[in-house]
Amino acid sequence: MWKKKLQANGPEILNTDGGYTFLAKGVEIQGIAKLEGVVRIDGHFNGAINTNDMLIIGEHAVIRGSITADEIICSGKIEAKLTAKKKIQLLNTAVLIGDIITPSFSMEEGAFFHGMCDMGVSRRVDRVEWLTKESQVTEKAHDLIAQGELVPTH
């Protein structure tokens, strides 16, 4: 977590008052950011962002790289891979070009998304395959009972 306010020719870069990190409009940062608590970005960021809480991407924000957070709420422009433990929400002004991994995804009318969305499909596919196999076994058992080759026990 950043411990003090940083100034760069006037605009406040990061403010962590109350456990809230803020990257202001007009500020450009490049690199890797590992942050704690709620983070709001309204500036430009190029690199990797990692927070253990909510990331709010403002309407004027432009982000390129990768983002990992518990929750991502976006109304800005992103070209990145997004991973959220809880959810990703694109508000109506959002533009997202990149892949997302999250258990919950929502998108308001007007938002733009181009990429792949993984909401845990592999787990659901495994469950569907198991149910299909279970159904086939049950069907086969009924056929064998009907043919007298299998005697049900009670």
What does the radius of gyration come to? 24 Å
The helix-strand sequence is: EEEEEEEEEEEEEEH
Distance from N terminus to C terminus (CA atoms, Å) equals 64 Å
What is the averaged pLDDT score?
Answer: 79
Q: How many strands, what sense, and barrel or not for the largest sheet?
A: 14 strands, mixed
State the helicity in percent bands.
10-25%
Strand content: over 45%
In terms of per-residue confidence, which ranges show pLDDT below 50 for 5 or more consecutive residues?
A: 1-16
Quickly give the structural class. Answer: alpha/beta
Which shape, going by the Cα principal axes? elongated
Number of domains: 2
Strand runs, count: 14
Number of helices: 1
Textual characterization of the structure:
There is one protein chain. The protein is α/β, with parallel strands linked by helices and 154 residues long. The protein folds into two domains: 6-119, no CATH class; 120-154. 17% of the residues lie in helices and 48% in strands. The protein has one helix spanning 121-146; strands at 6-7, 12-15, 20-23, 28-35, 38-41, 44-51, 54-57, 62-74, 77-90, 95-97, 100-101, 105-107, 112-114, 117-118. Strands 1, 2, 3, 4, 5, 6, 7, 8, 9, 10, 11, 12, 13 and 14 form a 14-stranded mixed β-sheet that branches. Strand 2 (12-15) and strand 3 form a beta hairpin. The protein is elongated. It starts with 5 loop residues before the first strand and ends in an 8-residue tail after the last helix.
